[in-house]
Specification:
The protein has 132 residues and is α+β, with helices and mostly antiparallel strands. The chain is 15% helix and 41% strand. It has two helices and nine strands. Strand 4 and strand 5 form a beta hairpin.
Length: 132
Protein backbone atom coordinates (compact mmCIF):
# COMPACT_ATOMS: atom_id res chain seq x y z
CA UNK A 1 0.00 0.00 0.00
CA UNK A 2 2.88 2.38 0.79
CA UNK A 3 4.33 1.90 -2.67
CA UNK A 4 0.93 2.43 -4.25
CA UNK A 5 0.82 5.87 -2.64
CA UNK A 6 4.25 6.77 -3.94
CA UNK A 7 3.44 5.54 -7.46
CA UNK A 8 0.16 7.45 -7.44
CA UNK A 9 2.08 10.62 -6.69
CA UNK A 10 4.80 9.87 -9.24
CA UNK A 11 2.31 9.13 -12.01
CA UNK A 12 0.42 12.33 -11.30
CA UNK A 13 3.59 14.40 -11.27
CA UNK A 14 5.13 12.87 -14.36
CA UNK A 15 1.90 12.89 -16.38
CA UNK A 16 2.31 16.50 -17.38
CA UNK A 17 1.14 18.13 -14.17
CA UNK A 18 4.57 19.59 -13.37
CA UNK A 19 4.40 23.27 -12.56
CA UNK A 20 0.61 23.39 -12.42
CA UNK A 21 -1.54 23.83 -9.36
CA UNK A 22 -2.41 20.38 -8.13
CA UNK A 23 -4.03 20.86 -4.72
CA UNK A 24 -6.76 18.28 -4.36
CA UNK A 25 -9.07 17.02 -1.62
CA UNK A 26 -8.54 19.89 0.79
CA UNK A 27 -4.77 19.37 1.00
CA UNK A 28 -2.73 22.48 0.24
CA UNK A 29 0.99 23.12 0.92
CA UNK A 30 1.46 26.67 2.17
CA UNK A 31 5.18 26.57 3.07
CA UNK A 32 7.42 26.31 1.19
CA UNK A 33 5.75 27.32 -2.06
CA UNK A 34 7.18 27.72 -5.52
CA UNK A 35 6.87 26.99 -9.20
CA UNK A 36 9.23 25.31 -11.67
CA UNK A 37 10.45 28.73 -12.84
CA UNK A 38 10.63 30.14 -9.31
CA UNK A 39 11.08 27.34 -6.76
CA UNK A 40 10.70 27.93 -3.06
CA UNK A 41 13.54 27.25 -0.65
CA UNK A 42 13.17 24.27 1.68
CA UNK A 43 14.27 25.63 5.04
CA UNK A 44 13.89 22.71 7.41
CA UNK A 45 10.18 21.92 7.33
CA UNK A 46 7.00 21.95 5.28
CA UNK A 47 3.47 22.88 6.31
CA UNK A 48 0.06 22.19 4.81
CA UNK A 49 -3.68 22.51 5.30
CA UNK A 50 -5.56 19.20 5.36
CA UNK A 51 -9.02 17.72 5.71
CA UNK A 52 -10.07 17.03 9.31
CA UNK A 53 -10.42 13.31 8.48
CA UNK A 54 -6.65 12.98 7.91
CA UNK A 55 -4.99 10.34 10.08
CA UNK A 56 -1.75 9.76 8.11
CA UNK A 57 0.40 11.47 5.49
CA UNK A 58 3.20 10.64 3.03
CA UNK A 59 5.89 13.11 1.94
CA UNK A 60 7.76 12.58 -1.34
CA UNK A 61 10.62 14.41 -3.09
CA UNK A 62 10.78 13.84 -6.87
CA UNK A 63 13.66 14.82 -9.18
CA UNK A 64 11.69 16.08 -12.17
CA UNK A 65 14.64 15.88 -14.54
CA UNK A 66 14.94 12.10 -14.06
CA UNK A 67 11.44 11.28 -12.74
CA UNK A 68 13.17 9.58 -9.83
CA UNK A 69 11.89 9.54 -6.26
CA UNK A 70 14.72 10.97 -4.16
CA UNK A 71 13.02 10.70 -0.78
CA UNK A 72 9.76 9.25 0.49
CA UNK A 73 8.31 8.53 3.88
CA UNK A 74 6.16 5.56 4.81
CA UNK A 75 2.67 6.36 6.11
CA UNK A 76 3.23 8.63 9.10
CA UNK A 77 0.51 8.97 11.73
CA UNK A 78 -0.56 12.53 12.46
CA UNK A 79 0.96 13.75 15.70
CA UNK A 80 -1.67 16.49 15.93
CA UNK A 81 -5.00 15.76 17.62
CA UNK A 82 -7.69 13.98 15.62
CA UNK A 83 -9.50 16.53 13.49
CA UNK A 84 -6.50 18.84 13.11
CA UNK A 85 -6.57 20.78 9.85
CA UNK A 86 -2.87 21.67 9.77
CA UNK A 87 0.02 19.29 9.13
CA UNK A 88 3.79 19.66 9.12
CA UNK A 89 6.89 17.58 8.57
CA UNK A 90 10.66 18.03 8.71
CA UNK A 91 12.89 15.77 6.66
CA UNK A 92 15.39 14.29 9.16
CA UNK A 93 18.93 15.72 8.90
CA UNK A 94 20.42 12.30 8.13
CA UNK A 95 18.15 12.07 5.06
CA UNK A 96 18.31 15.73 4.11
CA UNK A 97 22.07 15.71 3.55
CA UNK A 98 21.69 12.96 0.91
CA UNK A 99 19.54 15.21 -1.33
CA UNK A 100 21.73 17.13 -3.81
CA UNK A 101 21.38 20.91 -3.48
CA UNK A 102 20.78 23.50 -6.18
CA UNK A 103 18.34 21.33 -8.16
CA UNK A 104 14.59 21.99 -8.44
CA UNK A 105 12.52 19.16 -6.98
CA UNK A 106 8.82 18.51 -6.54
CA UNK A 107 7.95 18.26 -2.86
CA UNK A 108 4.56 16.64 -2.32
CA UNK A 109 2.31 15.52 0.47
CA UNK A 110 -0.59 13.10 0.28
CA UNK A 111 -3.07 12.85 3.13
CA UNK A 112 -4.86 9.64 4.10
CA UNK A 113 -7.40 8.22 6.52
CA UNK A 114 -7.51 4.69 7.88
CA UNK A 115 -4.89 2.30 9.19
CA UNK A 116 -1.92 0.95 7.16
CA UNK A 117 -2.64 -2.66 8.18
CA UNK A 118 -6.39 -2.49 7.49
CA UNK A 119 -6.66 -0.11 4.57
CA UNK A 120 -6.02 3.49 3.65
CA UNK A 121 -8.17 5.98 1.75
CA UNK A 122 -6.54 8.86 -0.12
CA UNK A 123 -8.01 12.15 1.05
CA UNK A 124 -5.93 14.71 -0.80
CA UNK A 125 -2.58 15.72 -2.23
CA UNK A 126 -0.56 18.74 -3.24
CA UNK A 127 2.91 19.51 -4.52
CA UNK A 128 5.25 22.45 -4.84
CA UNK A 129 8.62 23.14 -6.46
CA UNK A 130 11.57 23.58 -4.09
CA UNK A 131 15.34 23.80 -3.97
CA UNK A 132 17.24 22.25 -1.06
Amino acid sequence: MRYAAVWLLVIGMVAGLSGQAMAWGGTYIYAPTGTISSPGMYSGSMHWVQDAATSHFVVTVLDTSTSMVIYSTPFIAQSAPVGATLGSYSIPAEDLWTIPTGITYELSVSTWSGHPLIGMTLIGLDKTSVVF
